[in-house]
Amino acid sequence: MTDLQSSPLGHATIYADGHDPALLFRVERAPLRAELGIEGQPPFRGVDVWTAYELSWLDAAGKPQVAIATFAVPAASPCIVESKSVKLYLTALNQVRFASPDDVADTLRRDLGQATGAAVAVTLTLPDRFALLPRAEPTGECLDALSVAFERYEPEPQALRSVGPVVAETLFTRLFRSVCPVTGQPDYASVELRYRGERIDRAGLLRYLVSFRRHPGFHEHCVERIFVDVLNRCRPAHLAVYARFTRRGGVDINPFRSSDDDVVPVNARTARQ
User: What domains sit in the chain, N to C, each tagged with a CATH number?
Assistant: First the structure.
């Protein structure tokens, strides 16, 4: 195709031009968790940490302001919000006047809380503190240099097995990819798995994580599926799964699930984010 007029490129998207919390599209967690065999209390706790890099609004004088917003949605919330709807909602604030950054944060906190059904923590980082935002790479041992043959690109939990003595270790891969169930676009992530229990076969773990490559799933649901599959097949005494997805549309999503109450993820941007 060489005719740009008939190509999918460059077509205008209609964006709202005002504060409109109705743009936030709710997705219930319960039906997705039921697919994993979770009824009632999940076997994990956690949080979904979002970073919005393209937040902008007008101050009282009509002057544009910018900030980076972080909001944390508890895993116990009854709903998530679909990411594209969040981008449309944030873009709609571009021409809205706010008295102060605190008013912006309060608005985000209220609207996201109503959409998810839970208290959402919101933090705005203003430009004079951008350089202080932390950066880090996944911790532990990387699986990506393992010599593994791959044939399946849909979740393959049967690749998971525990094969050795009890250990406490952290493993990670940068090769994770899934597919957005709404747009069909690829979603790339670094996935870090920390556990204590019988040693997990590393080749099998990498094969399993790569097998999501064609899987359509929301970020949060993919991480919960990883947690449940590893828990069911390897039976660790402790397990935590943390995925940092690369941003699309100026937003990244970083779901964290853990079997412990007192573990809090470090919100540090990776190089790919």
Answer: 4-132 (3.30.1130.10), 141-258 (3.30.1130.10)
222 is catalytic: no
Instruction: Give residue 96's region: left, alpha or beta (phi > 0; psi -120 to 50).
Output: beta
Query: From first to last of its 273 residues, what are the pLDDT tens digits of the chain?
Result: 444 455 444 556 677 789 999 999 999 999 999 999 999 999 999 999 999 999 999 999 999 999 999 999 999 999 999 999 999 999 999 999 999 999 999 999 999 999 999 999 999 999 999 999 999 999 999 999 999 999 999 999 999 999 989 999 999 999 999 999 988 999 999 999 999 999 999 999 999 999 999 999 999 999 999 999 999 999 999 999 999 999 999 999 999 999 987 677 889 999 999
The CA-atom distances, in angstroms, between 30 and each of 1, 37, 38, 39, 224 are: 43, 10, 8, 8, 12
- 262 noted as active-site residue: no
What are the residues facing 178 on neighbouring strands? 187
Cβ(176)–Cβ(193) below 8 Å: no
Task: Catalytic residue, from 20, 59, 180, 201: name it.
Answer: 180
| DSSP for residue 20 | -
Radius of gyration of the CA atoms of the chain, in A: 20
Tokens of 56: 């902008």
Count of alpha carbons within 13 Å of 197, Cβ hemisphere only?
Answer: 20
Which is the catalytic residue, given 187, 229, 234, 252? 187
First to last CA, the chain: 32
